[in-house]
Specification:
8% strand, 65% helix
């Protein structure tokens, strides 16, 4: 590869990229818009208590309790209760034994199982136990000794409650990466349609030089803006190398998508429908972070899942290389496949 030719091509593409006013505007104001939304979103967690209850025999006390900020919802089975707690639907789940009424009447200690999510703080656990004892008192009219058995569901992430704004980081990172796909796909599509690429290949430039220049420009623009955004919002204050490596792999992913779209698009208007086809599936994994429990395991077939999950775990929980290496390996595999397919599609287009 000729570095001088690659440098000249990158300079040309950057000039054409920012000469397009639409691309220039959404590139600059897109980051500003995401930053405004990020800092407007609440930076603290909601402390209201939503508790799930599995009760083979419903106690009247649970129906009578009325306290501000406390909601108790009945769940049909203990397995459903555990799943709801794991997915973050409830701060805790209470499972009552079948013989609880008999235990109360005979003066024995009923054993009540309480399920907590892994990131439930200790003070929340204490508050739930106080509520259970209060309900036992309301039921019997006298303080009774009860046994409360705690079970933690999921990996232990104690003391790491996530503010809503921090859940938005992966979503905005995906948005920023995908916006750069618009410019790259449009630029490639127009050059192919106008046979600019064919003309360039008549010069000493090789096909490798061409794809190296396009790839470096696409990856640099996408990665640079995503990294800048994450730096401003504090997203790389924990595990910065992991975050930057993940964003770099994400930039390679969207560059490969840009190659694919550029092979079928003629201009920006014809590129937009294809961009939507790529855009919508890629943002779906972000909802598993923003709204835990809304997305099931099938989302792992989408390449961006491994970007979103890694950014979320590293930025919000401080996950290390040992925790996310498999995510990065899978994301790298998707990158290689998609970039290769994009290059093959483009080569067939202009040859």
């Amino acid at each position: 590869m000729n570095l001088r030719i690659i440098g000249a091509l990158i300079a040309k593409d950057l000039s054409l990229f920012f000469r397009n006013r639409f691309i220039a505007v959404i590139t600059v104001f897109g980051i500003i818009f995401y930053l405004v939304i990020y800092f407007v979103v609440p930076s603290s967690v909601d402390e209201s208590l939503e508790i799930g209850l599995y009760a083979p025999v419903m106690l009247p006390a649970f129906e009578q309790i009325q306290e501000e900020g406390l909601e108790i919802e009945v769940v049909k089975s203990e397995e459903a209760l555990k799943e709801a707690v794991t997915e973050g639907q409830y701060v805790a789940g209470i499972a009552l034994p079948v013989d609880i009424m008999e235990s109360f009447m005979s003066g024995q200690k009923p054993q009540i199982t309480v399920y907590f999510a892994a990131d439930t703080p200790e003070e929340m656990k204490d508050a739930i136990e106080v509520i259970i004892r209060e309900l036992a008192y309301l039921q019997t009219g006298q303080p009774l000794a009860i046994e409360v058995s705690e079970e933690i569901l999921g990996p232990d992430m104690l003391g790491m409650q996530i503010p809503p704004r921090n859940r938005l980081r992966p979503l905005f990172a995906i948005f920023i990466l995908l916006v750069e796909t618009i410019g790259l796909a449009t630029l490639i599509g127009e050059e192919v349609e106008r046979r600019t690429i064919q003309a360039l290949l008549v010069t000493p430039m090789t096909v490798r030089d061409l794809f190296a220049a396009k790839g470096i420009m696409g990856v640099s623009l996408a990665f640079g803006q995503a990294a800048l955004f994450m730096a401003i919002v504090g997203g790389i204050s924990r595990q910065p190398l992991i975050i930057l490596a993940t964003l770099l792999l994400g930039a390679v992913l969207v560059t490969g998508i840009g190659f694919l779209i550029g092979s079928v698009a003629k201009d920006m208007l014809s590129a937009m429908p294809w961009l939507l086809v790529a855009f919508i599936p890629l943002i779906i994994p972000t909802f598993s972070v923003m709204f835990p429990g809304t997305i099931t395991g099938w989302v792992k077939v989408i390449p961006s899942y491994y970007l979103v999950d890694t950014v979320h775990r590293a930025a919000n929980f401080g996950a290390g290389w040992g925790d996310i290496w498999l995510n990065l390996l899978i994301l790298l595999g998707f990158d290689l496949v998609i970039v290769w397919i994009g290059i093959m599609a483009l080569r067939r287009k202009f040859q």
